[in-house]
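Budget justification note: compute hours in this period were largely spent on complex prediction jobs such as the one shown. Inputs:
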Amino acid sequence: MDAPNPYAATCPTRQLLDRIADKWTVLLLSLLNDGPIRFNQLRRLIEGISQKMLSQTLRKLERDGLVARKVIPTVPVTVEYSLTPLGETLTRTIDPLIHWAETHMSAVNDAQKLYDRTARG
Amino acid sequence: MDAPNPYAATCPTRQLLDRIADKWTVLLLSLLNDGPIRFNQLRRLIEGISQKMLSQTLRKLERDGLVARKVIPTVPVTVEYSLTPLGETLTRTIDPLIHWAETHMSAVNDAQKLYDRTARG
DNA sequence: CAGTATCCTTTATGATACTG
DNA sequence: CAGTATCATAAAGGATACTG
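Corresponding output:
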């Protein structure tokens, strides 16, 4: 009786997109793929991210079971973030996207320029 | 002299994410992957999308050179949308993501429940 | 170092009415 | 059918100050 289509509001695809379709999530996952890393290291690596968004995005990823947070009781405290096994499976599917961006974004930019010259005044 | 890291504000990955990280783009690409389709067909298939967002998202995809728009001069007019070859290459990299969602989102939902029971309350 | 809290601006999205 | 225009709201993101 349920709608069989994968585009229903509650389908897994929609759920996933609602979670990762933001400015920083995919970028973070991709960075964490290189191994465990500390909060301020991430902050320095990702140009332009605010402390608030880094913290918020990491907490969401932790809640989703995609990222593990490990507190090391140094003084001051050190916190290390890493992918969980589940997070690794997701990151592996995201990786080709990064590669696509590197090889095809220039074509997209060209298409935009063409569109703006023709379809517009 | 440029920052060599792929997380710089202007890197292709950031550009791509800024473009597709919204509520509907990936979903639309995935649907268009099944073949050419008309405006209102898309609208009916994607539960919850507004006319405005469908129109707006399609135009952006067209501008990016990812989707082709074909006007068929019937009365009233028919408009058919389809992936361009460039759009097809992107959609192929996105496809595994849909599959990941179908097989792993239940694990994510479980993780969320666990997190909410422990890290909270 | 690794955050939280608060305020504020921008962007994204939605509802509704209208058109060739 | 396939849109556009306008108004309104919600959600995302950023700046800044503060804390164990």
